[in-house]
Design goal:
about 280 residues, alpha/beta, Metallo-beta-lactamase, Chain A, 7-stranded mixed sheet, 7 helices, about 25% strand, binds zinc ion
């Protein structure tokens, strides 16, 4: 598999739209890896993770043919991951050619939100509700949905994705993994699954870890690093596994170079927009 990072920022982007804090000013000056669109990814040019607000900007910046996308995994329905108008632009009148049909999987509340957009046939869209801890096929991929610790009213998910012998884990918009999520991961390990690439969020950056009984819906750098290391301890990583942090916020995440230093002790690298990862 090849995973392409379309975006690596938290909800308001980095630099944020209307912010001139120290991080945002420095990021505008630095450009390059310090300009982050909202988090999303494209696998093998055909499987999209999250139909978010920066999809068009990503397509322009990275010269993508998104009409070729056939499958979508939607993590949850927050507005930094799901934009209704993207679906409208799949309809005739907005597109002069016929895009590939989409099969989109997400939790029941996510599917209900997209169903409400209407005209699914015209949007060339099949929706499938999946439950946390369900393993299902999506085209050539085998996917396991995992429960995220986030806004629990909307049943947020993240995903373990396999194709042939290669596997990756994509985890953002989650605090510390739930015990049942670790159980499901242990089950994958028992089945012989080893991730060659892992992306875990580090939204709240240098902010202190929340109390154990108030774990919060995002992770800081320390938690991100600990989760990467714990995956290794549980035998879930390949020998050469590539480990990334993603979904960075301007409030608490420093610029790319400083973030790389803070993540280095954990063997983790900050992802950046346009990063391509070959997954063995
Ligand atoms: Zn988010
Ligand atoms: Zn800012
Ligand atoms: Zn969210």
């Amino acid at each position: 598999m090849e995973l392409l990072y379309l975006g690596t920022a938290a909800a308001e982007g980095y630099p944020a739209l209307f912010c001139s804090c120290d991080h945002c000013r420095a990021a505008r000056e630095a450009g390059g890896r310090d300009l982050r669109r909202r988090t999303a990814a494209l696998i093998d040019g055909e499987l999209l993770i999250d139909v978010g607000p920066d999809l068009l900007a990503s397509a322009h910046a990275l010269n993508l043919r998104l009409d070729r996308v056939r499958w979508v995994l939607q993590t949850h329905s927050h507005s930094d991951h799901l934009l209704e108008s993207n679906f409208n632009f799949r309809e005739q009148g907005f597109t002069g050619t016929t895009p590939e049909w989409w099969e989109l999987c997400g939790s029941r509340p996510t599917i209900d939100a997209i169903t409400a957009y209407g005209r699914l046939e015209q949007k060339r869209l099949t929706l499938r509700a999946v439950a946390a801890f369900e393993t299902f096929s999506l085209g050539p991929y085998t996917v396991t949905a995992l429960r995220a610790r986030h806004d629990m009213r909307i049943d947020p998910l993240f995903y373990a994705i396999r194709r042939g012998a290669s596997a990756l884990l994509w985890a953002n918009d989650t605090g510390a993994f739930f015990p049942e999520t670790w159980q499901a991961l242990d089950q994958l390990a028992a089945e012989g699954v080893r991730f060659g690439m892992v992306g875990i969020e580090a939204t709240v950056g240098t902010q202190p870890a929340p109390d154990a009984d108030q774990p919060g819906g995002h992770m800081n750098i320390e938690q991100c690093g600990w989760h990467h290391q714990e995956l290794g301890r549980r035998g879930l990583l390949t020998a050469g596994a590539q480990r990334f942090a993603q979904h960075m916020s301007h409030h608490k995440s420093p610029l790319h170079a400083e973030l790389a230093e803070l993540l280095r002790p954990y063997g983790v690298t900050p992802a950046y927009d346009g990063l391509r990862v070959s997954v063995d």
